[in-house]
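Hi everyone,

Forwarding the result from last night's run.
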Amino acid sequence: MELLQRVRKTIERHNLLAGGDTVVVGVSGGPDSLCLLHILCRLGNDYALALHVAHLNHCLRGAEADEDQAFVVELADRWGLPAHAESQDIAALAKERKLAVEEAARQVRYAFLARVAVRVGAQRIAVGHNADDQVETVLMHWLRGAGPAGLRGMQPVSGLDELRLEGEELTHGEGGSNLLLIRPLLDVPRSAIEAYCTTRDLRPRFDRSNLDTTYYRNRLRHELLPHLETYNPRIREVILRTAAIIAGDYAYLRQQVVGAWTDVVVLESARAVAFDLGRWRALPLSLQRSLLREAIRRLRRSLRNIGWVHVDNAIGVLQRGSTGVCATLPRGLEARLGYHQVIVADKAYVEPVPDFPLLQEQVPLRVPGTTRLPVSDWELTVRIVDWATFDRQDLSHDNPWQAYLDCDIAGKVLCLRPRQAGDRFWPQGLGEKPTRVSSFMTNAKIPRAWRDSIPLLVRTPEPVLRADEGSRPLILWLAGWRIDDRAKVTNTTQRVLHLAFSKVGENDS
């Protein structure tokens, strides 16, 4: 199959391009990027593409690097394409950020491409990674230690924000987080690319640094892979096939992680993620690990590699540890084991407490009178008002921490308590049918971290109002959210029970 058709097939299979796209093409001047640019130019009319050439001079090879830049700019001009070139002292930047030169170059290169894309209004950035690059990447990840995310290798299309560009804010800033990185040549071997350049008389630049085996990737390319081919001449095909299988498995695992995240996470902010402890512990080990890694990823978006040792140690601590124990995670994070939660946050994080009444135990109420909630700055005042003197306009109040009930139905022997398994009530406005308190809380989007502490107003002793209800409690009010429809004030009400939560001291006047 002619290379153009092979690339077109990859583009169609993975939806790499859409009609009318503006595409920034990263061009170093080497065979891969030159072949990519030439093919995209040939496909330009078919997809109505607006191409922009982008070249970053890494300033690592002196005059040769300057000549590469001049070659790319001149080529773009000759082909009638706008060119964007920039120089960066990668060696100095690597020293400043305490990174390997290869990693510093990667970060700066993609940040540069993103800036160009935002500047010209591009939706996609195309780079020239090929099938041999994929083999080297997968092998490199395996040697360093990686899970499915690393062993699946590079993907034909991915979000630019998946690259974890430390210190490069643009990828998460305005316009940058929506950019797609596409690799149209990812299924094409290097030999086919070089043959294409020869046939088309493209004459790419030669980068001598590709021969320098002090670079890790070059050692894999020139030493390890040829040695592995003595064991299996088709080792490259084997690695590519394995990566494709793992990519499929990883996609399925990601679906499971997304579902579990929705079910298990009770708090998510820029500073912390909290899991429901029971639900997290009930998950398979694979999902426990994946959720922990996902929390780290969301809290430290620039972190590229999350070490196995950190995650495995945390899993052991959280599965078997006692309340209050902590496990160290990367970049200043830790996982703390609470009574009902696992909290992933930095060491200085203090879990916020909502500024409304919460309780952990049953509290009998003074009716009428004022009752202070234990270990709290809140109190509940209860009044009984005759219907003849009751102001009906009070029923239209918008304070969620006040309630008006029919006193004869509610009774005078009342308590506040947290929810219990099997609790049901008849939420006002939702029709005449019982609803589980737990289901109502879920539908009302009450954060799971608070649900076990929201006060329920319960009549005691608990009566049986209907023969088919057995001995279920009469829950009069899910405080802050909804009263029970059966206890609402009606035209037949003789006395009104008024309940109002307030901060201690607010009602002294």
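The CA atoms of residues 32 and 340 lie 54 Å apart.

Cheers,
N.
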